[in-house]
Amino acid sequence: MLSKNELKYIQSLCQKKQRQEEGLFIVEGPKMVEELLNSKYAVRRLFATKEWISEHSVNGPFPEEVNEAELTRISCLQTPNQVLALVEQKDPPDEPVLEGKLTLVLDGIQDPGNFGTIIRIADWFGIDQIVAGDNTVELYNPKTIQATMGSFMRVNCWYRHLSDFLQSVKIPVYGALLEGKSMYEPINFTEGLLLIGNEGRGIDAHLLKYISDPITIPRMGKAESLNAAVATGILVAHLKK
């Protein structure tokens, strides 16, 4: 049984400030945790139901048994799912290598679900790096991690001040804009960055001067806008075809 102090400590990791101070984050659910245990991430502690423990042999921290009520109290999810891991945060290796590939650049993505879905989209299309503006939601937000469905383990994410980052770039910068070139027109893509803007305001005005190739998804109906993650998926599919 978990002590009151342990419960309070684990619950505190649902908050960004505590995650940053401790250098830890939370991963939940059988599929994600099983994949995590075979990754390069270091699992600090593992909490699981008796059922999960009986069905799994773990090479790593010995699972600490918790009952359903305790799991509910320490979970960041509405519906806890058998197992929860406390994991050490880690910085991506070196600097992103931009030449010869497609890199996603995110300006002010605020919804953790959108960010996690974009990471998952990147993983699907073989994109292994994302540069996020320092105004983008935290990678280790529990909702972001859950939305990646494990893809955060394969996609490196750097946080940068985007105006400083973009002004040093020597390859094409594609920007998702309403007034851009239609994605259906021929695009001779070999390398570049794809800049995706904030869910509400789009790409910040001070970054527009760095876009060499504005690109748009032509609207055929009456919807005012597309979800940021949906737009990312559509544009990446066309650039990577």
Describe the structure.
The chain is an alpha/beta fold and 241 residues long. The model has no long low-confidence stretch (mean pLDDT 94). It has nine helices and ten strands.
Tags for this model:
241 residues; alpha/beta; 6-stranded parallel β-sheet; 4-stranded mixed β-sheet; 9 helices; 10 strands; 31% helix
Beta strand %: 15-25%
Question: Could you name the ranges where pLDDT drops below 50 across 5 or more consecutive residues?
Answer: none
Strand order of the largest sheet: 7-6-5-9-8-10
Task: Count every beta strand, where a strand is a DSSP E run of 2 or more residues.
Answer: 10
First-last Cα distance: 53 Å
Task: Describe the structure concisely.
With 241 residues, the protein is of the alpha/beta class. It has nine helices and ten strands.
Task: Produce the secondary structure layout.
Layout: H1 4-12, H2 16-22, E1 24-28, H3 30-37, E2 43-48, H4 50-55, E3 64-65, H5 68-74, E4 83-88, E5 102-106, H6 112-124, E6 129-133, H7 142-148, E7 156-160, H8 162-166, E8 173-182, E9 192-196, E10 213-216, H9 228-239
Parallel strand pairs: 2-3, 5-6, 5-9, 6-7, 8-9, 8-10
Antiparallel strand pairs: 1-4, 2-4
Helix pairs in contact: 6-7, 6-9
